Amino acid sequence: MSNVVRFGLTPKMKPVSPKRSAVVAALDVGTSKIVCMIAKLQPQAPQDVLRRRSHGVRVLGFAHTAASGMKGGTVIDLAEAEAMVRTAIDIAENAAHVQLESVVVALSGGRLGSERFIANVDLTGGAVTDGEIARVLAAASRHSVRDGRAVLHSLPIGYSLDAASGIREPRGMLGHKFGVDMHMVTADVATVRNLMLTVERSHLNIEAMVASPYMAGLSVLADDEADLGAAVIDLGAGTTTAAVFSQGRFVHADGFALGGHHVTMDLARGLNTRIADAERIKAIYGSVLSGGSDERDMITVPPFGDDEREPPQFVSRAALTRIIKPRVEEILEMVRDRLAASPFAAEPRGRVVLTGGASQLTGIADLASRILKRPVRIGRPLGLSGLPESAKGPAFAVAAGLLVYPQAAHLEHFEPRRTRHLMTGNGGYMARVGRWLRESF
Is 384 helix (H, G, I), strand (E, B) or coil? Predict the structure, then answer.
């Protein structure tokens, strides 16, 4: 079996028709939580802030459970992960009064990264037609990605015609040499396979497996922000991932296995308390802001053991900040270095939008602005109705973006269905999925 897998829209995934309603299900399997949302997409007129959305999103069912069997966005215990996925799906199905057959799944692990390919063809008739566009896109898609990597997204981000570049709509234009700049988002094959297997064992088909930061961007960015240039940083529990948008297009992805859970572990060690208590303290009192009054503001830290005779300890909020801030600074400095090597470096006034559970730490936007030297805001899902109050924050941006994604699916390019397969060997895509299941279990 080849270790280069062509991923994208499976045979069941179709871009939603602008004139039709549809029901879509989203599954965000993270390191600390699993979110399942079910929504109805209904055609609507373009909105001022979200002009590119053809549909309104009305949430029908919502579920949020603790994750298990996951680390750094990667499955480490298949049975545990499957059990929690099943639980989240059951709760959402009961709330929405539907039974799901398929879901759109977000991936945050597997060392997300971008690869750019440029392809050129000679125009046979002198004019750009749909056939010529298909031909140049196919030429770009034939570029080989690195071994051990799976393609999640294949997005044309600009066309060229002779000496002119940056063309967005080339149909009907005249020239001799026609080219495309293709952006491919890739992840480690093993991470993709095991997450896919977890969902398939829950008796669901996968309509698409997509990059978490891209979904967060679809959820929280206004169209003007994407046009002017923005980077969405999703600060998850086990991973930090980034998506860069320029001229309205998703042009770069990156990620590393460091996130809010590492802050929790620092607190558990520094305060000599249980991980669950450290997580609660972080959620309630966590801050990266230092202040003199914090030395006198004391909080109670439960003892590590179960001995009721052991007295609790008291620490100041300033002491918490001294534990939390260095780790957050480390994460943001890594983000800064990754963005410096991306197309975002060419957007000197580009905005940074923070999402994910760790973005809820008090003062993190100001700290990020100082380290990244950019305007920074916290991003929350835009344009969704029916979301429960608990799901309107930045921690649920990825799941919300999965519900928006069918409206952006038409931007993707993959090989025609009759040729979409693993790169070597016999059998189609779904046959290979079946083979993975048979060989593994």
Answer: strand
Counting as low any pLDDT under 50, the low residues of the chain are: 1-12, 417-441
Per DSSP, the residues of 173-219 read -B-SEEEEEEEEEEEEHHHHHHHHHHHHTTT-EEEEEEEHHHHHHHH
pTM of the model: 0.89
- Give the span between the Cα atoms of 201 and 425, in whole angstroms: 24
3-class secondary-structure state, position 423: coil
| CA–CA gap between residue 415 and residue 139 (Å, rounded) | 10
Per-residue tokens: 226: 């994407």
Distance (Å, rounded) from C-alpha 282 to C-alpha 270? 12
pLDDT in tens, 125-183: 889 998 999 899 888 877 777 788 899 999 999 999 998 988 989 999 999 999 999 99
* Angle 346-134-424 from CA coordinates, rounded to 5°: 95
What's the mean per-residue pLDDT of the chain?
Answer: 88
Domains, in order of start, for the chain: 1-111+188-221+382-426 (3.30.420.40), 113-187 (3.30.1490.110), 222-379 (3.30.420.40)
* Element holding 22 (H helix, E strand): strand 22-29
Give the closest residue to 388 by CA, choosing from 151, 56, 96: 96
Helix or strand holding residue 279 (H, E): helix 275-285
By CB atoms closer than 10 A (0-12, 13-18, 19+), residue 137 is buried
* Short-list 198, 185, 252, CA closest to 30: 198
- What's the number of CA atoms in the CB half-sphere (13 Å) around residue 223? 11
User: CA 95, 389, 350, 402: dihedral to nearest 10 degrees?
Assistant: 0
What local confidence, expressed as pLDDT, does residue 95 receive? 97
For residue 389, give the DSSP letter: G
State the Cα–Cα distance between residues 232 and 229, nearest whole angstrom.
10
Q: Considering all CA atoms of the chain, what is the largest pairwise distance in Å, rounded to the nearest integer? A: 86
Q: State residue 18's pLDDT score.
A: 85
d(CA 145, CA 186): 8
Closest CA to 195 of 375, 74, 326: 74
DSSP 233-262: EEE-SS-EEEEEEETTEEEEEEEES--HHH
pLDDT for position 372:
97
Residue 13, pLDDT score: 55
Q: Where are the beta strands (DSSP E) in 370-418?
A: 376-378, 384-385
At position 336, the amino acid (one-letter code) is R
